[in-house]
Amino acid sequence: MLSYYNTVSLGVPGTAMASYTHLSEAERWALVFHIGQLYFDDTQKQAGRALWADTPDMRRIVPDMGTLVQTTPEALAANHPDHAMPLLAALIDRPALLAPGQDRALTTARQMLDAADQAYRSGNREEAARAALSAYLDGFELAEATLAATDRKLMAQIEADMMALRNAIREEETVNAVTQRVERLQVALNQAENRLHSDEHSVAAAFSGSFLILFREGLEAILVLAAMFAFLKKSGRSEGLAYLHAGWIGALVMGLATWFAATYLIDISGASRELTEGLTALLAAVILIGVGLWLHNKSYASRWQQYVAGQMQAAMNRGGLRAIGLVSFLAVYREAFETVLFYRALWSQGQHTAVLSGMVIATILLAGIAVALFRFSVRLPIRQFFSFSAALIGVLAVVFAGKGLAALQAAGWINAQPVDFIDLPVLGIYPTLQTLLGQGLVLMVLLAGILYNHRSPSAAPSH
Question: Considering only the top CATH level, what class is 102-196?
């Protein structure tokens, strides 16, 4: 295909074959693929498409467009005599089969797993660890949302097995043991690819994946924003709304900038993505602990009366309002950063109508939750309002702490020691010792703050 492209671009001097440089690069490639597919008959094309759909190993032979255009039929037939012509017929006829998306994500996962196995065999444990981490972050994770909509059990199995592989490399298990783990993962990835290519699931999986990505990532941000908005309205601090809105609007702008950069300027690695999400989540958790304890402090009637009378205005001065703006930014950006990258991968695999439908439904539901939460909270009496808001913010602090630590584990910054415990990612609960200890620490800080507020002299009811 590459030689065809050069001929179309440069022409053949002294013959009727003229140069087609007046066409754009994309138009020349389209012409080349049109010419190429004329070489094959419909039987070969249909056989190749069936082979591509039913035999995931074929996708390792021609993993991307670069390999396709540089491969000759003779070279492919030398290694795969029975499959070369049907495979080329299908891919040249329908190059969209190689479009980046979940296929590319799973191909990357396979390649990185092979690299990890080879590095471990050669004694390079650090390189093996990096490759195993990349297999998840730069590969499988980008296909997780859609696979979860199709086969959640398989998704959870692969995720757990990849973590077990990273632990096995870190703990220096035998070469045979690591190789066996890699082989099991390769089999599971083949199963995942077959599930994702099932025609009856493709539209539903795209819709469900799109819905789950936005709803899952947006729910926590909506809860934080709704609680902060209700507090500012209830306490008469309308001037703080400017900080709140500036935070989430700035986060959305940064999210769009991230999408632009990831698409046109740089390649954002999975480790960088998880590191950003983890650090912003932990910073948000720290701020939410302070905000939650401050709200709990105001749930005592005497302290609220002091606040309204102006005796405690310093507790929510411009510095406090800036903190609300920062929480607003962090809560939205940590979700937007990951969401735009996941949607970039999801969009590239097609089914655009289903993807857009999932986004619209998730947006409507999130907006409904925000309105309902705001209306419910502002109708509460002052004390119950602050108690409810403090409890919600405290729970979110625990959730953010768990998710932040899990992201740092995924990025390879901290170890992940599995324990026998429930797995509830929606609440930031992961069955690892480090995340559970971190959440336990946040709970202890919150309980200590609540106890201090309760025993403080000014907590006594006013008469």
Answer: mainly alpha
Cα(100)–Cα(92) distance, integer angstroms:
16
pLDDT tens string 334-372:
777 667 766 766 666 556 787 888 889 988 998 888 888
Q: Are 110 and 186 in contact (CB under 8 A)?
A: yes
In 38-72, where does DSSP find H-type helix? 42-54, 58-61, 65-70
- pLDDT of 304 reads 47
96-100, 168-172, 283-287, range with greatest mean pLDDT: 168-172
- Cα–Cα distance, 182 to 62 (Å, whole number): 21
Tokens of 228: 């902060």
Residues in the chain: 463
- In order, the DSSP letters of 236-300 are T-TTHHHHHHHHHHHHHHHHHHHHHIIIII----HHHHHHHHHHHHHHHHHHHHHHHHHHHHTTS
Closest CA to 357 of 148, 204, 198: 204
Rounded distance between C-alpha atoms, residue 97 and residue 126, angstroms = 35
The answer to whether 98 and 91 have CB atoms below 8 angstroms apart is: yes
Token pair for residue 439?
Answer: 């959440």
Other beta carbons within 10 Å of 460: 10
Which two structure tokens, joined as six digits, stand for 213?
Answer: 């990505």
Nearest in space to 104 (alpha carbons), one of 183, 163, 2, 189: 189
- What's the rounded mean pLDDT across residues 23-47? 82
Among 358, 444, 362, smallest CA distance to 397 is for: 444
DSSP state string for 100-154:
SSHHHHHHHHHHHHHHHHHHHHTT-HHHHHHHHHHIIIIIGGGGHHHHHHHHHHH
- Determine the Cα–Cα distance for residues 398 and 285; give it in Å rounded to an integer: 7
Indicate whether this model's pTM tops 0.85: no
Backbone phi and psi for residue 418, each to the nearest 5 degrees, phi listed first: -65, 145
Locate 443 and state its tokens. Answer: 């709970």
- The per-residue pLDDT for range 103-128, each reduced to its tens digit, is 677 878 888 898 899 999 998 988 99
Q: Which residues contact 85 (CB under 8 A, 6 or more apart)?
A: 40, 44, 48, 73, 77
Residue 234 has pLDDT above 50, yes or no: yes
| Contact call for residues 262 and 344 (beta carbons, < 8 A) | yes
- Name the residue ranges covered by the structural domains of the chain: 2-98, 102-196, 200-459
Residue 448, burial from CB neighbour count under 10 angstroms (0-12, 13-18, 19+): exposed
